[in-house]
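> example.struct
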C-alpha cells in the first residue's frame, strides 16, 4: 500500500528543482534598460538633452548592478546574460540611434556608416569581453568600454545642445564632427588598446588628506560647467588607451592585456 507514496517521493527527488531569480540586481539592470528606452523615445521627440541624461542614468545603474550582486551574494549566470543584453541596448543601440537622429540622418547613407560601425563595435566588444573575462588583466579594459564610448558620443550632443545649437543635421561641419566622433568610438571599442579600468582601486584603504582635497576640487571644477568639463574628461579617457599603448611600446613592455599566466608575480591577483 506504501509503494505509490514511495514512488512519488522518489520522482520528486529526481525532478530538478526550479531555480528562482535574484530580484535586486536584475531590477537594477531592467532600470538601466528602461533609462536607455527613455533616451531613445526622447531623441525621437527631439529632446536630446533628456536623451543624453537617460544614457548617463543607464551608465550609473549599470555600474551598480554587479556591485549589488556581489555585495548581496546574488550573482547568477542569468544575471550576467541579462546585464550583457541590457548593455548592448544601453551603450550600443541607443547611442547609435540617438546620434543618427541628432546629426547623421541628413548625410544619407554616409550617416549609416558611423552609426552601424558603432553598434557593431559595441556588440563585438561585449562578446569579446564575455569570452575573455577569465584571462584579461583586470587593471585594463581591452578596447574602449562601451559605457565610455556612449559617454563620448553623448557628451558631444550634450555640449552642443547646452550651447543652444539646433538642427545639427543641417550644419555640415557639426554633422561631420558627429560622424568622426561616432566612428572613432565604434572602432576604438574593438581595438586592443589598454584602457585603465580603475578596478584595482580600493575604497576601503586609508588615503592621504590631500586626496580628499583633490576630490573636492574635482567636484568644484565639474560644477563650473558640467557639459564641457565632463566631455573633456570623456575625451581624455577616450584617447588614454592609445597613450598607454604607445608608452608601453616605447618602453618595450608587453602591450597586450591578455594575461598568459596566473603564476607570474606581476599578474598575481589581476584576473577577473
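> example.seq
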Amino acid at each position: 500500500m506504501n509503494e505509490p507514496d514511495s514512488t512519488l517521493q522518489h520522482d520528486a527527488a529526481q525532478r530538478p528543482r526550479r531555480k528562482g531569480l535574484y530580484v535586486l540586481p536584475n531590477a537594477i539592470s531592467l532600470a538601466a534598460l528602461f533609462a536607455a528606452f527613455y533616451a531613445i523615445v526622447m531623441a525621437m521627440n527631439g529632446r536630446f538633452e533628456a536623451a543624453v541624461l537617460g544614457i548617463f542614468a543607464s551608465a550609473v545603474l549599470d555600474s551598480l548592478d554587479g556591485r549589488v550582486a556581489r555585495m548581496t551574494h546574488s550573482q547568477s549566470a542569468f544575471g550576467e546574460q541579462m546585464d550583457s543584453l541590457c548593455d548592448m541596448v544601453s551603450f550600443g543601440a541607443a547611442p547609435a540611434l540617438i546620434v543618427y537622429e541628432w546629426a547623421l540622418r541628413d548625410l544619407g547613407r554616409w550617416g549609416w556608416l558611423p552609426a552601424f560601425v558603432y553598434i557593431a563595435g559595441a556588440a563585438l566588444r561585449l562578446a569579446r569581453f564575455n569570452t575573455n573575462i577569465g584571462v584579461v588583466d583586470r587593471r585594463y579594459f581591452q578596447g574602449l568600454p562601451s559605457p565610455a564610448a556612449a559617454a563620448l558620443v553623448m557628451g558631444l550632443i550634450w555640449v552642443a545642445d547646452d550651447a543652444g545649437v539646433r538642427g545639427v543635421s543641417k550644419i555640415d561641419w557639426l554633422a561631420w564632427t558627429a560622424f568622426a566622433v561616432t566612428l572613432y568610438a565604434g572602432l576604438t571599442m574593438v581595438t586592443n588598446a589598454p584602457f585603465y579600468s580603475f578596478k584595482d582601486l580600493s575604497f576601503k584603504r586609508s588615503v592621504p588628506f590631500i586626496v580628499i582635497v583633490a576630490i573636492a576640487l574635482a567636484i568644484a571644477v565639474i560644477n563650473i560647467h558640467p557639459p564641457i568639463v565632463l566631455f573633456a574628461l570623456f575625451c581624455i579617457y577616450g584617447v588614454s588607451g592609445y597613450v598607454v599603448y604607445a608608452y608601453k611600446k616605447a618602453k618595450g613592455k608587453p602591450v597586450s592585456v591578455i594575461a598568459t599566466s596566473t603564476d607570474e608575480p606581476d599578474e598575481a591577483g589581476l584576473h577577473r
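> remarks
Confidence is low (pLDDT under 50) at residues 261-272.
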